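S1.2 Input.
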Amino acid sequence: MSEKVFEVLEYVTWLAYISPNRLMVASLRGSITVWDIESASCIDQHDNLGRLRAFAMAPDRKLAASVTEEIDIIVWDVQTWTKLRIIRPGEHSSGFIGHLLSFSPDSVHLAIGSVVTGTLCVVWDIRTGERIRQFRGHARRVRPVQFSPDGSLLASGSLDTTIRLWDLNVAELPPKDSFTALSPLGNNLCH
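S1.3 Output.
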């Protein structure tokens, strides 16, 4: 096979192989379709999921997440396509329209890059809906985010033309306007 073309009716926001012969596709208008690669036919479809500004499938293939027009994060049960949890970023919602979402390898955490006004990467615990990490450092909007295969690092790309690697096992850095110094003997860190 040199090339196969699948005609879709809507703008595609995400796609991924869910098996060697199956491709799952999410569209902006809120449909999920599964395509059989061999026959080039749609074998499963779920509509009316709401506008999908961003979408991601968990590695365990049991959960998916999307970002809505209202900037809510919806966690989906992939077997039934029912909402398991709605995470509302709250006071920070203007900065959390995710261009790309990324699940951790254990399917427990979800990272979101900010593409409207924010320069943050945020990590959520999807079991509790709690924000567990927030990373600052990019000068411009954050676009893609991706966990490392072992889940210890989060990579983020930005319109500032940098890629940052964030260690998820290290406490957050102090704010930019704070002063940090190491004592002359090198045994005390002062903020």
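S1.4 Remarks. The mean pLDDT is 81.
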